[in-house]
C-alpha cells in the first residue's frame, strides 16, 4: 500500500501548451492537409464585392467594430481557415465575428437569399475538421459572443453566449460552488456553443452524463434567419411541452442552425477530490475487472475513469524528455496499462478511506501493480496533464497522424488497438499505434503515428477501421463527431433508413444546404 | 434530535391500491369524461370488416393467439378505451396486442395505406389522456411485448421490449446490482416503451437525470411501417454519428412512431439507502433553503428530494382514516410543508452520519420542525407510499379533480398554489387545492379537488393556470406531457416558430397523421 500515498515526484507545473497556443506555434505542413476534398458545389454562390458590403452591414455596428467583426486579411484568416490538427485547411475569404443574435440572424437571412455557404466556428478545437470551411464558405465565428448572461442560484443553472470558453465558464460556476458538467482537454479554447453543437463529452461524462440531459435552454438561428428561443433563460430541468427541439441541434455540428445561447444545469462541486494513477499489467481483462469494481465499490463518488496504454505514455515520455512528463509510475516497467481514477465527494476522510480500501484490495488481488494518490491539487492537475497531453503529443509526434474516436462494447474495447497493430505490423519505433480513452463509457481513442508521409497507410487504415468497428457493434465516432474527416462514414454506424431521415431533417431546416456544407452525410 | 431516529409508528403494509387495481375498481362516472372533444377527422377511414380481417392477419400468428392479440369485445375494450383517471374515454372498436416488431410494422403499413388512425398504448397510466383514443382509433397495446432481451454486465445496460413493466425491469436490474434510472408511482403498471415515449421522469431524476441521456438504443416503427434500429443492442453510451434520432421519439407521445424496443444505461445500486420525512413550518422560503442545503451538503448521496404540502397530506389522512396513512409527523400540527428526502450511497454509517448531521443542523437552525428517519426498508417504503399515494388520493377525493403538472422557477414554485387558492377562494372543505412535487427539479403538481361537478370551475382554472405559468417563465407540462388534456396548450410554453417546426417534423414522419391524432398540437 505504501506506493499509493507516495508523493508524485515528477509532477510538472505546466509544460504542455494549450491547444490555442499550439495552433499558433505549429507550422502548416502540406503533408498534413486533407486527403478528402469534395468538389465545390456549383449551386452555392461566390462572394462578390456587393456581398461583402452587405454582410459588413449585417455584422458591424459601426466602422470602429469593423476590424474585429469583419476579417478579410489573408494572414489573419489563416487561423480561422485551419483546423487544430493542421490537417483541414479551407480557403474562405471572409470571417465574421458578430456580437449579437440579431447580427447572426441578419447574416444568415442574407446568405440564404444569396445561396452563400456559412461554416459556424467556435473555439476551432475539433478533431474532425468540422469547424473550418472546405472551400470558400464564410466563417461565422462565435468568439465575440462570450458573455455569461445569467446565474440561477437555486438550481445552479448558467446561461451563456455561445462563444464563452469552457474553462472560463467552469471557473465562473466554481465561484458559486458548482461544476460545469463538461471537461475536455481543449477547455482553455473550446466554446460552449461548439461543445453543444458537437455534443462534446469528455471525462466528466461518467459522473454528469450527456449534455442532452443537461442543456435546459437554447437559442438557435436557423438557415433562414429565424431565431428560435428554446426555453432559454427559463432553464427548466423538466419540460415536456411538445418535441424537444434543442435535441435537434445538440450534436448537429452546425449543419442545422447556429447555436447562439445556451443554458446548462450544473452540479454542486464536490468538496473533496482525490486523483489516483494506477499501473496494471498487460491484460485488458484486468482493466475491465478494475472498471467494474470501481463503478460498484466507489459508486456515487466515482467521477472519472480514464485509460491509457503503455505505448501512449511512452510516446509522451519520449517527446517530453521523460522527467518532465509527470508519470510517477515510470519506474514500473511491467505496467502495460494505466488507469486514471478520480473521486469527488463531500467528506474527504470518507472518500479517501474508501478509495484506499478499494485500491488496497485491487493491489492485494493482483489487479493493480502499483499506484499513486495525488496529495494535493497541483499533483492532481499533474496527473490530468499527463492524460490530457496525449492528444497533443501524438499530433506533434509524426508528419502524419490518424486519430480514431471509437465507442466499442467492453469486450472489443482494446481489441481494435491490437488488431490495428497487427494489421500495420508495426516494428519498433517505425510506426506507433497508441490509445487512451474514457474507460467508464466505452470510448477509446485509437491513434496511429506514421514515420513518413505515406498515403498507403491511410488506405490501409480506412475504411478498414470503420468496417471493423461496425462489425463489432461499435460507433465510428463516440464524441468527436463526423465533420470532414468521417463525412460519408456515418453509414458504418447508422442504417440507410436512419440516414435518410437525417437528410430529410436537414432539407427541412436548411433547404439550400448553406450551413456547414460537405460535412456529415453531405459528402 | 431524538425525533429523527423515532420508529415510524404507523407504517402501513400496503393499503394503497396499485393504479392497475384502481383502474378496475373505480366505476366510470360520466362527470369525469373529457370536456374537450375535437371533431372526428373526416380524412381518416372507418374500420370495415375487410380491415378487421386484414389486421388480424397482421397481428395474429394463428387462431390460438387471436383471443389475446385481437380484441373486439366491447366489455374487454372498455379498459383500453378508458384512461387511468376515467376522464378520457374513447370509442375504439379494436385493440391489437402484437408480440413482435414485424407485426407492428405490418399493422402500421396497412393502416397508413388505409388511412386508419392508431393510438399506441403502454401501461395506460398517463395523466393527460394521451394513451387512449379520442374517437375510434385502433388501440395498439404493447403489453404483450414485454421481454427482457439482453443484459450487458460490464456497462449495466438493459435492453427490453416496449411493454416490459417498469417495476419488473427495475427488479431485474436489481438482481444484477443495478438500479433502473427511473421510478414512478405508476411503476407497477407503466411500461418502459410508454415511459420513453412520454419522457417520464419521477423521483430518481434528481440523481440519474433525464432519460434523454440514458436511452442508449431504440427500435421504433414509423407510420409507414419502416423499422428504424437506432443503436439498439449496441447500447453505446456515446455515439456521435449524425443526428440522434432517438431523441425525436423520446417525449413524442406516440405521434411520430411506435417505440418497440429500448436499451437503457442503468446505474450501480447504492448499498445503503436512507429515507427521512421532515416537517417544516409554513414558509416556503424555508423549503427552498433546505433544498439548497441538501443539494450542497448531501451532494453525491442525495437521491430524492420530494415535497408535499399540509393540505395534500391532510386529504390523504382523511381519506384513509388517519392512522393507516403512515404520516409519522401527524402529531406536529405546525407543519405546513413536508419534505421526503432520500440518500443512496456505498457506506451506510457514513451516509447516516452525514444525513444526521445535515438534519441536526437544519433543526438547530429552525428550518426543520421535526422529522423521522426510516429504520429499515419497510419503513422507507411506508414513507414513499405516503408520497406516491397522493395522486390516487386526489383522484378518489371528489367527483371532479384537475391535475396540473408544472415546472416553475424556484421563486414561483409554490406561488402558483397560493394564487390558485386565492382565485378559487376556497373555504373549509368545500374545495381542496393541494400540491406536491419533485422539489429538486422544479416540478410541482397542483391539484384541485372540487366538491361538485361544476363546469364553471374548469373555466376558472383554464387557461388561467397555463397563462400564469407562462407569465412566470414556467412549463405547462413538466413530465406528464400534453396528450388530450393540454392539446392546444403547447403555445403557453413554446413559441409559434418552434411549434411550426414540430408540426413540420410530424408531417415529415407521419404525412397522413394516423399516429395518435388529436393529441399534442394536433388539436
Automatic annotation (TrEMBL), chains A, B:
Keywords for the protein's UniProt record, in alphabetical order: FAD, Flavoprotein, Oxidoreductase
Reported cofactor(s): FAD
Pfam family, one: FAD-oxidase_C
InterPro entries: FAD-bd_oxidored_4_C, FAD-bd_PCMH, FAD-bd_PCMH-like_sf, FAD-bd_PCMH_sub1, FAD-bd_PCMH_sub2, FAD-linked_Oxase-like_C, FAD-oxidored/transferase_4, Oxid_FAD_bind_N
Domain FAD-binding PCMH-type residue range list: 88-269
A single MF term (Gene Ontology): FAD binding
Annotated TM spans: none
Single GO cellular component term: mitochondrion
Domain of life the protein comes from: Eukaryota
Family (UniProt): Belongs to the FAD-binding oxidoreductase/transferase type 4 family.
Protein name: FAD-binding PCMH-type domain-containing protein
Amino acid at each position: 500500500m505504501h506506493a499509493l500515498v507516495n508523493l508524485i515526484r515528477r509532477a510538472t507545473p505546466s509544460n504542455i501548451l494549450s491547444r490555442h497556443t499550439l495552433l499558433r506555434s505549429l507550422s502548416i505542413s502540406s503533408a498534413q492537409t486533407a486527403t478528402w476534398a469534395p468538389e465545390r458545389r456549383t449551386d452555392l454562390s461566390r462572394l462578390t464585392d456587393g456581398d461583402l458590403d452587405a454582410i459588413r452591414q449585417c455584422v458591424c455596428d459601426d466602422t470602429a467594430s469593423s476590424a474585429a467583426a469583419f476579417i478579410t486579411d489573408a494572414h489573419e484568416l489563416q487561423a480561422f481557415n485551419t483546423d487544430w490538427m493542421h490537417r483541414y485547411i479551407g480557403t474562405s475569404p471572409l470571417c465574421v465575428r458578430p456580437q449579437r443574435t440579431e447580427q447572426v440572424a441578419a447574416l444568415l437571412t442574407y446568405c440564404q437569399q444569396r445561396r452563400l455557404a456559412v461554416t459556424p466556428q467556435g473555439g476551432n478545437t475539433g478533431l474532425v475538421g468540422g469547424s473550418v470551411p472546405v472551400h470558400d464558405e464564410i466563417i461565422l465565428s462565435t468568439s465575440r459572443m462570450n458573455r455569461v448572461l445569467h446565474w440561477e442560484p437555486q438550481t445552479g443553472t448558467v446561461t451563456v453566449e455561445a462563444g464563452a470558453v469552457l474553462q472560463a465558464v467552469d471557473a465562473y460556476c466554481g465561484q458559486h460552488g458548482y461544476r460545469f458538467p463538461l471537461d475536455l482537454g481543449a477547455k482553455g479554447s473550446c466554446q460552449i456553443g461548439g461543445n453543444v453543437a458537437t455534443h462534446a463529452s469528455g471525462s466528466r461524462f461518467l459522473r454528469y452524463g450527456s449534455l442532452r440531459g443537461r442543456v435546459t435552454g437554447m437559442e438557435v438561428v436557423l438557415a433562414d434567419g429565424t431565431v428560435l428561443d428554446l426555453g432559454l433563460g427559463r432553464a427548466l430541468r423538466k419540460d415536456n411541452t411538445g418535441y424537444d427541439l434543442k435535441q435537434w441541434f445538440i450534436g448537429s455540428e452546425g449543419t442545422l442552425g447556429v447555436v447562439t445561447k445556451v443554458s446548462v444545469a450544473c452540479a454542486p462541486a464536490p468538496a473533496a477530490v482525490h486523483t489516483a494513477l494506477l499501473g496494471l499489467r498487460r491484460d485488458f481483462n484486468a482493466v475491465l475487472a478494475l472498471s467494474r469494481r470501481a463503478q460498484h465499490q466507489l459508486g456515487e463518488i466515482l467521477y472519472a475513469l480514464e485509460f491509457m496504454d503503455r505505448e501512449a505514455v511512452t510516446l509522451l515520455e519520449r517527446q517530453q524528455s521523460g522527467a518532465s512528463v509527470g508519470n510517477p509510475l515510470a519506474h514500473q516497467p511491467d505496467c502495460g496499462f494505466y488507469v486514471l481514477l478520480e473521486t469527488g465527494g463531500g467528506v474527504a476522510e470518507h472518500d479517501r478511506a474508501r478509495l484506499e480500501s478499494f485500491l488496497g484490495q485491487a493491489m492485494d488481488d493482483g489487479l493493480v501493480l502499483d499506484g499513486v494518490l495525488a496529495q494535493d491539487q497541483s499533483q492532481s492537475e499533474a496527473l490530468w496533464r499527463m492524460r490530457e497531453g496525449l492528444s497533443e503529443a501524438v499530433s506533434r509526434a509524426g508528419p502524419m497522424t490518424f486519430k480514431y474516436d471509437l465507442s466499442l462494447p467492453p469486450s472489443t474495447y482494446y481489441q481494435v488497438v491490437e488488431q490495428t497493430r497487427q494489421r500495420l505490423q508495426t516494428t519498433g519505433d517505425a510506426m506507433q499505434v497508441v490509445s487512451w480513452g474514457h474507460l467508464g463509457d466505452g470510448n477509446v481513442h485509437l491513434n496511429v503515428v506514421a514515420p513518413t508521409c505515406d498515403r498507403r497507410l491511410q488506405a490501409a487504415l480506412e475504411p478498414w477501421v470503420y468496417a471493423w468497428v461496425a462489425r463489432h457493434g461499435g460507433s465510428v465516432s463516440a464524441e468527436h463527431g463526423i465533420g470532414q474527416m468521417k463525412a460519408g462514414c456515418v453509414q458504418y454506424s447508422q442504417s440507410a433508413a436512419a440516414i435518410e431521415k437525417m437528410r430529410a431533417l436537414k432539407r427541412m431546416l436548411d433547404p439550400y444546404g448553406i450551413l456547414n456544407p460537405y460535412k456529415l452525410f453531405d459528402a
